[in-house]
Design a protein that fits this description.
Layout (H helix, E strand, L loop, with lengths): L5 E2 L23 E10 L2 E9 L5 E8 L6 E6 L2 E2 L8 E12 L2 E10 L3 E8 L5 E6 L5 E6 L8 E7 L2 E2 L5 E2 L2 E7 L6 E8 L8 E4 L4 E3 L2 E13 L2 E11 L7 E4 L10 H4 L7 E9 L12 E8 L3 E8 H6 L2 E2 L19
Parallel strand pairs: 6-10
Antiparallel strand pairs: 1-24, 2-3, 3-4, 4-5, 7-8, 8-9, 9-10, 11-12, 12-15, 13-14, 15-16, 17-19, 18-19, 19-20, 20-21, 21-25, 22-23, 23-24
Bound molecules: beta-D-mannopyranose (BMA).
């Protein structure tokens, strides 16, 4: 049986050793992970999250002509306008890239003096990035923009952080849909996908931008199993959302489709993490749908230390999702086609 996601034999495809020295900020960085991804002309581009030895976070662009071997640029992305924000920003991290018309929107998490927030920058050339703004709302993370507007409004999936961990940051177990006219003020339209208590995806957050397919919006998300005393295990799964109303979940994977198994996923700055954050899908039909045979390059952070790649097709990811009932649950029985054994 072909696994749903097949790891690249070149993994990890980007590590700290691939990052040119950019003194004084980035010299021999600690880690490179959780990248945003997009196609720019013929180039495969990643916006990397790079962490310095001082544990400061920077974005740097990497480019490739095959999606596998990346050259990391020797300059840090400067988001124009970010330094004028008065909310006490400590880190910007986990960029997700969505193209709408001829603009790329980079949506990222922002660690502030108070809570975690979601910000947006735009670029048209991956040289110049301009801040659109940072939402001044409640604690939220894992924001990702849909690749089209609905009645002129932007739509995003995000993950409110409603759970305060005793020994760490805030987190959440529900992905919600929000809309905005200006990418700064967001209104919640309600829940989309819930975490499943005691299973692989107790806590969840959206990964790369939803992909328009004839079966619905295809979403890859991360799930965290928290019930292994002390270890949070980050895995990846998929779901299909209704094209007209993305709050309606049509199907989701019963099990994870990628979990930490390789040494580079099991060991690192944060052990046991695969964190899908970007994908590039080769091909679109005349009506703007990703066809089932289209190849999927899924980029993920491994153990908060390196960038990895796993491949699939749109069809294989769709097939891995099982229909849900009106409560959003997969009816019991039927064998799962999704387990990965490599
Ligand atoms: C999440 C985010 C990710 C990170 C993951 C594992 O809460 O902070 O950036 O990869 O934890 O540490």
């Amino acid at each position: 049986m072909i696994p749903v996601l097949v790891r690249s034999s070149d993994n990890p495809i980007v590590t700290g050793f691939d990052v040119p020295a950019m003194p004084p900020d980035l010299v021999d960085p600690t880690s490179v992970f959780n990248p945003g991804a997009t196609k720019f002309g013929d180039l495969y581009l990643l916006v990397l999250r790079i962490q310095s030895r001082g544990r400061k976070t920077y974005f740097v662009v990497a480019e490739s002509d095959n999606g596998r071997n990346f050259d990391v640029r020797d300059r840090i992305v400067e988001i124009e306008g970010l330094d004028q924000e008065a909310m006490g920003i400590h880190h910007v991290f986990d960029p997700r890239i969505t193209k709408i018309d001829d603009t790329w929107y980079v949506m990222f998490a922002v660690d502030t003096d108070t809570v975690c927030r979601v910000g947006v920058a735009t670029t048209r050339d991956f040289e110049r990035f301009e801040l659109v703004g940072i939402e001044a709302g409640p604690d939220v993370r894992n924001g990702v923009l849909f690749p089209e507007r609905k009645e002129g409004r932007f739509l995003r999936l995000d993950r409110p952080n409603r759970i305060q961990l005793a020994d760490g940051p805030t987190t959440g177990d529900e992905i919600v849909l929000s809309e905005s006219d200006d990418l700064v003020a967001w209104r919640s339209l309600g829940p989309v996908l819930k975490g499943r208590p005691r299973l692989w995806d107790e806590r969840i957050g959206a990964g790369p931008p939803p992909l328009r397919t004839r079966h619905g919006w295809l979403l890859v998300y991360h799930g965290v199993a928290t019930h292994f005393s002390g270890a949070n295990i980050y895995q990846a799964g998929a779901a299909i959302l209704d094209l007209e109303d993305p709050r309606r979940v049509l199907a989701r994977t019963r099990d994870n489709i990628l979990e930490p198994r390789k040494l580079y996923e099991l060991v690192g700055q944060v052990p046991n993490v695969v964190f899908p954050s970007g994908w590039i899908v080769d091909g679109e039909d005349d009506d703007g749908f990703a066809p089932e045979e289209a190849r999927v390059h899924l980029y993920y952070g491994a153990a908060d230390t390196s960038v990895c790649l796993a491949n699939s097709t749109v069809g294989r990811l769709i097939e891995a999702c099982e229909p849900v009932n009106s409560h959003g649950s997969i009816p019991s029985a039927s064998s799962s086609p999704t387990s990965e054994n490599v």
